Fold this protein.
Amino acid sequence: MALVRQILDAGIDLETASLEKVRRSFDRLMQLFGGLDVDTQPVELPGVDSTPLQAEWVGDPSASSTVLYLHGGGYVIGSPRSHRALASRLATAAEARVLLLDYRLAPEHPLPAASDDAFTAYRWLLDQGDGPLAVAGDSAGGALTLLLGTRVVAADLPRPKALAVFSPWADFEAHTPSLLTANDPLLDRDDLLRMAGEALAGQSPRDPALTPLYADLTDLPPVLIQVGGDDGLLDDSYDLAARLAAAGVDATVDTWPYMIHVWHLFAGRLDEGARALRQAGVWLKNHLEN
């Protein structure tokens, strides 16, 4: 963890660097941590407004079940390149193919663009009829995972077997006490508020269509939340867990002491990251098979 912190401390300043530089640098930084040697294949999906959606298959192409993965990055950065290593480990542990979606990013495409893309990808997977389906995501992608679940329920579509979220970001207003007290090199309150402003583009931070913290979570499938003890968004996870429990959802919160925001990304050098992904993968596999 000390090595991971040193690498992150040498990262890009979100406030002064250009957005394109931040995106390229984040992708390159995450690739330093390495993944497993699995099959990858680009795929193009029908998108919104006739614009194709880009995605990537990760894992054994003959797998009988699928996990739709929604990457994190504050709705502003992140891509299949930044999360390919994470997806490779999750696919291996879950014994499933992972569809790693390259959804549209803000500020070019504010919310609900990312949510619309996730819903479009989910419906496309249902149309493929390739077996059991689950959804997973980290940080902003974790919030998108839960929002996707609510949209599927509202549309009366077949529900995913399970939802797994890592360090979900749920509070656009950054009220979370842990954000001010945690020793987390990945999170800065000012950066979060800046990304929230770009993602929302003037919309309400409490719009239930844009954040699961205020959404109707009734009838969601089982949810696994993994969060680090030193995660700046630790309280976001606990708040979501309380909302899920109040909605009658089978939700499990797994807190990892000393771990930072989405430590899963560093599994190539951090054993706890690899173990967390193995455990999440096995949890998904069990639900996909039942």
Remarks:
- Residues 38 and 59 are 5 Å apart (CA to CA).
- The two ends are 36 Å apart (CA to CA).
- The beta strands are 40-45, 53-58, 66-70, 97-102, 133-138, 163-166, 223-228, 251-256.
